[in-house]
Design goal:
The chain is of the alpha/beta class and 346 residues long. It contains 13 helices and 17 strands. 31% of the residues lie in helices and 27% in strands. The strands form four sheets. Strands 3, 4, 5, 8, 9, 16 and 17 form a seven-stranded mixed β-sheet that branches. The chain is globular. The protein binds zinc ion (ZN) (2 copies).
Length: 346
C-alpha cells in the first residue's frame, strides 16, 4: 500500500509498504480523506523527529473499516469512522480525573513515532487506540471530507466552551487560517461580534464568507486601536490567538478589556516558544491568559453531529483537495495562505 513519509524538512516520500496485518484487538481503516492541519505544516517545516527515520503524518482522517481483529468488538467491517489524534494512557493523574487532553503520556496518531497517520491508503487502529483514542462513527449523510474536518472543529468548540463566548461579546480572532475561520463561525453562532486580524491578503479575502463584523490588516492598521474603537474604548471580551506568532500574544493583552480573556490557541515554534506580556495590564486589569489545547474525546462526537447538521460550514472551509500522490503540492498550498482547509483524498 502507498504511504507518504515525511523524511526531511518540507520533504515527503511516497513509499510502497507492506499491507499491514490486523491486530487481534484492533482494525484496519481504509482511509478515504485526511486533512492537512496547521500543526502538520509546522512539523513539515521542521522535519520529522530526529532519529525517527520518517513518519507518516495525518491525524484528521475518516474512512471505512476494512478488517477487524478476532477480539475487536467495538466496530464492524464497513463502519464509517472519523478519528482524532490523541491517545491517552488512562492511568496518569490527569486521565484518572477525566482530563484526557492533559494526559502525561499522550500519544498522537500521525505525530508520535510508532503511531503512523492517515496520509496512507490504510491505517491500523490498534487495541490501545480503540480503547484510549478518539474514534467515532460518522453520522449518516456526512461525507468523508467533511468528517475529516471534525478534528479541527473540536479544539475550537472546546475553546468556546471554556471562554463561555456569549451574546453581545466582542471576540477578536488573530489569524484567519482554517481554525481561525472556525472560531469566527462558532463565535458568531454563540451571538458574539467578531473582529478578525489577518496579514495575508488572500486570506483576508477568503475570510469574508465567514461573516466577521470587521476584517483588519494588522500590517497597515493598528489592531489594538481598531479594537478599542470598535468597543468604545473598552477592549474585547475575548481575544483568541489562533496563529503561531508570539508578538500577537503580546498585542492580545493590550486589546482585551479588564477582566477579559486571552486564549493562547496556537502553539509557538518549538525552537522559539518564549512570549512576553505587559504584566501590569494582566495584574491591574485582572486579565486571564488561558492556554487551550486539544479537547475532551466527547467533543469529537459533537463536532461530527454539528457538521452533519450543517452548523459548521465545512463547504466554505475546504478550498482544496489533492490525491495522496500530490501530497507535496497539498502542503505547499496549505502553507502559502492561498488555501484554507486542504484535504487529501485517497
Ligand atoms: Zn489537526
Ligand atoms: Zn494519562
Amino acid at each position: 500500500m502507498k504511504a507518504a513519509f515525511l523524511t526531511g524538512p518540507k520533504t515527503f516520500e511516497l513509499k510502497d509498504i507492506a499491507k499491514p496485518t490486523v491486530p487481534d484487538d484492533g482494525l484496519i481503516l481504509k482511509v478515504e480523506a485526511c486533512g492537512v492541519c496547521g500543526s502538520d505544516i509546522r512539523r513539515w517545516r521542521e522535519g520529522p523527529p530526529p532519529g525517527s527515520g520518517g513518519v507518516v503524518p495525518g491525524h484528521e482522517a475518516a474512512g471505512i473499516v476494512l478488517e477487524t481483529g478476532v477480539d475487536c468488538r467495538a466496530f464492524n467491517v464497513g463502519d464509517y469512522l472519523a478519528i482524532a489524534p490523541d491517545v491517552h494512557c488512562g492511568e496518569c493523574y490527569y486521565c484518572r480525573r477525566g482530563m484526557f487532553n492533559l494526559c502525561d503520556n499522550l500519544k498522537f496518531i500521525g505525530i508520535t513515532p510508532g503511531y503512523p497517520g492517515g496520509f496512507a491508503e490504510k491505517i491500523v487502529l490498534t487495541g490501545e487506540i480503540l480503547k484510549n483514542g478518539i474514534i467515532h462513527r460518522m453520522p449518516e449523510g456526512l461525507s468523508f471530507e467533511w468528517a475529516a474536518v471534525s478534528e479541527p472543529c473540536c479544539s475550537v468548540l472546546a475553546t468556546h466552551n471554556k471562554t463561555g463566548t456569549k451574546l453581545g461579546d466582542t471576540v477578536v480572532v488573530i489569524g484567519a487560517g482554517p481554525t481561525g475561520c472556525l472560531h469566527i463561525s462558532v463565535a458568531k453562532q454563540r451571538g458574539a461580534k467578531v473582529i478578525v486580524s489577518q496579514r495575508s491578503k488572500s486570506r483576508r479575502e477568503m475570510v469574508g464568507k465567514f461573516k466577521p463584523d470587521m476584517i483588519v490588516d494588522p500590517i497597515s492598521t493598528n489592531l489594538v486601536e481598531k479594537v478599542k474603537q470598535f468597543t468604545n474604548g473598552v477592549g474585547a471580551d475575548i481575544v483568541i490567538c489562533a496563529n503561531p506568532v508570539a508578538e500577537t500574544q503580546t498585542c492580545a493583552v493590550e486589546m482585551v478589556r479588564k477582566g477579559g480573556r486571552v486564549i493562547l490557541f496556537g502553539g509557538l515554534p518549538k525552537a522559539d516558544p518564549m512570549t512576553t506580556f505587559n504584566g501590569n495590564l494582566i495584574h491591574y486589569g485582572e486579565i486571564e491568559v488561558i492556554g487551550a489545547f486539544s479537547y475532551h474525546p466527547t467533543i469529537h462526537k459533537l463536532a461530527l453531529e454539528l457538521l452533519a447538521q450543517r452548523k459548521i460550514p465545512a463547504d466554505q472551509l475546504i478550498t482544496h483537495s489533492f490525491s495522496l500522490d500530490q501530497i507535496n503540492e497539498a502542503y505547499k498550498a496549505a502553507s502559502t495562505g492561498e488555501a484554507l482547509k486542504v484535504i487529501i483524498t485517497m
